[in-house]
Amino acid sequence: MMTLNSEKDNISGLPDSWLIQKDRTACYYHVPADQFTGIVTTLKALESRLVSIIGEEGFYVPDLCSISYVFELLDTPRYLVLVLTCPEPESITGLFPAASFFERKISDGFGVRFSGSGDERRLFLHEPYPEGFHPMKKGYVNTPVVAAGTPCPFPFREMKGESVYHIPVGPVHAGIIEPGHFRFSVIGETIMNLEVRLGYLHRGIEKLMEGKDPDEGVTLAESISGDESAVNACGYALAVEQICMITVPERAEYIRGIILELERSYSLVSDLAGMVTDIGFPVAASRLLVLREELQRACDSLTGSRFLKGIIRIGGVSRDFSSDSLLILDSLAEETGKRLEEIVSWISSVPSVIDRFSTTGVIRETLIDPLALSGPVARASGRVLDVRVDHPYGIYRDQIISPVSERAGDVLARFNLKSEEILVSLNFIRQLVSGIPTGPVRCAIAMHDGFALAGIESPRGRTIHYVRIRDSRIERYFVATASFSNWQAIEHAVMGNIVPDFPLINKSLNLSYSGTDV
Amino acid sequence: MNIFSSVFKRPVCKTASHADDAFEQIGLQTKKEISRVFGRSLAIREVDCGSDNAAEIELGNLSAPHYDIERFGVTFVASPRHADLLAVTGVVTHAMATVLKKTYEATPDPKFVIAIGDDACTGGIYLGTYAVIGPVEEVIPVDLKILGNPPRPVEILSGILSLMRSAGKPKFMDGGPDYD
């Protein structure tokens, strides 16, 4: 068997003749089909994490679908990408359970079958789509689809047995939230099994991106998930900028950093508000929502959008921030931090809050690697995973942010972690405001052909964007937001909890449905 | 606790420093119009059919302290069976088309539908692609469109006001109880 070593910034052990590309973010190797399983087994033994699996037609062999397996090696800033071109690849779900969702996504999109896969059900294509419909194939022209005449019902995995009953919830929920279906198998009040079914918000963003001018694609990237608009636009821009060898002006990097941390702050404040709302503590929620509204108003006055849309562009940002507006932002960040600390310490002093939060919805640390969990979900379970630190990009190459972590993995840990992270973000904003250099905020762009991967830390965790440009147009676009993998955590977190705690556990994770379904 | 401390305690409520006069005016007019059309209050059921969640966040914000639209007789309800108005967001995806129709049918008459956001109103950037049916009006009748990506809270409330203004004397009250 081949030996693989991950040394700092270098991956040795794979023959140079397999190397396709080595760039700032990743090393791409084309792996012969007969050696693939051996290498993946070695990667597993080296405690590497599977981050993403990307399907692409014509990556290596024209008209054939290649599968790119993106791995994160211990202490290695570059991602390792194994490119496999094989008509029926072997499923790696046995070694990396997180592969299941990715393999199903590729099967839906390209019609590729993975041998030995434990789950061959469709993922994002729901019943209205006809059999044999694979929209990501290059030969498929993006046109409206006529719904299938006799759709087959989706086979849920359910527990059977005496006194087991099922609770179907959604896709339309009681609150003002996104659509998704939850199928509980319950005995008494205790949840014995949960299956989450998503895909209701599948808008075909990856296909829609194809053929677009790269600059035009930013708007689509912003539409992936509303409260992660800036981070997705930025992740997409990072990939395009790497292909086109664009160096973003320093001032623009600072502005991007301010925007990304502002987005994290307002998103996480509403997570905290959601958690206290779901235990029936509206007084606390109201105080947090006041902070959130003020942060969103700050977003509006800085960028013209309460959701930071339209500010990130390829090569920089669309508008400069005046020194007056930066001063106002600085005092808002300071004030918000103080008020947040006061509110959170008050909330934490209420015994019934601790009673509901503590030991509820535990996500064990042992789940993090197999399910490719990231972001606050992983950090609240004792693992300090953060793209900003592990694979620094943009402003985080120069300005260091120190991530926080908790150990218990329950709702309380996620509440404490998220409140700490808001304070870190607000301080980071102040640090950037005080050090922001003068200069242009956008540079000229010239398109190049090529491909690149970009990892970025969204408020919900690690998000991967992959872009290929051919003839100055987007040829292939892939996105996996943090929610895509993190959704699997909830099925484990609710086990043994009671049904009334489900909304609280769900809110403590607050994952994006639209960011998963794209 | 001493009874006098309860009597003489200062009120917990205080006037917010962020009061927005324009929003208050729209709110008070909406309250008046809702009373005219529905007697007392307007119950809204929200349905997301393909939104990116930004419009949902703004609808949620309407209940937060800066706006608090329950003061004006507008409430968000948990079931279409309790609703007078459906607030539909997003371009309608294939997976949500049947769900939207069923939700519409489950809403008792008389009912109104508003489409919120560019994608819900026109199909936006998704129009003509494989994953979507199109704007909301392709699936159920729409009474009012509120454009925006997403519209701001004040724009949503203004939309509700203009819908109530144009609603006229409701047909369901003909021969029914008189609330005036």
Question: Could you describe the 3D structure shown?
Answer:
The complex is a heterodimer of chains A (518) and B (180). Chain A folds into 2 domains: 106 residues, NADH:ubiquinone oxidoreductase Nqo5 subunit (Beta Polymerase, domain 2, 2-Layer Sandwich); 305 residues, Cytochrome-c3 Hydrogenase, chain B. Chain A is built from 15 helices and 15 strands. With 518 residues, chain A is α+β, with helices and mostly antiparallel strands. The relative contact order of chain A is 0.13. Chain A has a 5-stranded mixed sheet with strand order 3-4-7-6-5. By secondary structure, chain B is α/β, with parallel strands linked by helices. Chain B has one domain: Rossmann fold (3-Layer(aba) Sandwich), CATH 3.40.50.12280. Chain B is built from 6 helices and 7 strands, in the order ααβαβββαβαββα. Chain B has a 5-stranded parallel sheet with strand order 2-1-3-5-7, sandwiched between helices. In chain B, strands 4-6 form a two-stranded antiparallel sheet. In chain B, α2 packs parallel to α6. The N and C termini of chain B lie far apart (46 Å). The C terminus of chain B is likely disordered. The interface between A and B is large, with 49 and 44 residues.
**What is the N-to-C order of secondary-structure elements of chain A (H for helix, E for strand)?**
EEEEHEEEHEEEHHHHHEEHHHHHEEEHHH
Give the CATH class of the largest domain in chain A: Mainly Alpha
Work out the radius of gyration of chain A. 23 Å
CATH class of chain B: Alpha Beta
Number of domains of chain B: 1
Residue-averaged pLDDT of chain A, rounded? 94
Our measurement of the CA-to-CA distance between the termini of chain A, rounded to an integer number of angstroms, reads 39 Å
Residue ranges of chain B: pLDDT <50 for 5 or more in a row? 173-180
Strand residues, percent of chain B: 15-25%
Structural class of chain B: alpha/beta
Shape of chain A: globular
User: What profile does the largest beta sheet of chain A have?
Assistant: 5 strands, mixed
- Which segments of chain A are poorly predicted (pLDDT under 50) over 5 or more consecutive residues? none
